[in-house]
Input
Amino acid sequence: MLCHGSGGTLIIMKVAVVGATGLVGGEILKVLAERNFPVTEIIPVASERSIGKKIKFKDQEFTVVGYDEAIKMKPNVAIFSAGGGTSLEMAPKFAEAGITVIDNSSAWRMDPTKKLVVPEVNADVLTAEDKIIANPNCSTIQMVVVMKPLHEKYKIKRVVVSTYQSVTGTGKAAVDQLFAERAGDESVAKVYPHKIDLNVLPHIDVFLENGYTKEEMKMIKETNKIMGDDSIKVTATTVRIPTIGGHSEAVNIEFENDFDLTTVRELLAATEGVIVQDDPANFLYPMPITAHGKDEVFVGRIRRDESQANTLNLWCVADNLRKGAATNAVQIAEYLLKKGMI
Output
């Protein structure tokens, strides 16, 4: 796979995918191929037990290597999806070798020295000096993409969000648990403290001293950092539901200024990465089953909150493995490449 620049110059673009054998790692490989990222060599990286396995990318097979070997191979960029512990240990080693790291875990998101990026919202904060870049939480990503144009127009004061999150957000073992329960198979290892099939768990990640879960606090803190505005008040309730297509969110947004619903729909429809599906009379609204496998954030059920002035209700859905993880990471890499930063 040889890639040429606009002047016919050969571009060498080695891309390491750390955690290549996992659910998100596989999605990153798929997104890189689909979006024709100019890869000359894929370096699949995983823990010791997966070294030597074969990973297919486009029409070629690549052998999974360990972390130290990957660093020696000098990739231009390394997209990490291997958990926070691995990122904390290995991302600095890649960065020290001059490799730009885009990290999917929560390890670096709230580090004040690291950028937390959703390209449609704040890609302009990136510089060539940023060697470890954090990819936000999946639920936060889809919400801030929708918030950005509305904040610019009406100034957001407060957001109340309730999420309906797919089991894919927990990983392959959770998907296995869901389908095993559906089949009546009790032998599969349990990821959740309760049955997930035909159930709803108001519990994502660990509970903290304030009664919120870690996932809820991620959404609150990450939103302020990405939007670059600590004055936006956010409160969240995050819920796991037995779906696999993507995450859904009911979002209530209070503005400083009044708004016009037609203008809101037009603003969102004109926003990069957003598709408005808002025709309830014809049963058109976003759903995980139709967002599955797509890169956009889908928005509908757009209506005025009649209980409070200057307040909007909307419903948004996105595939958490795509825009919520893999696609957002690849879009960051695309931006860096376009700006000559990798």
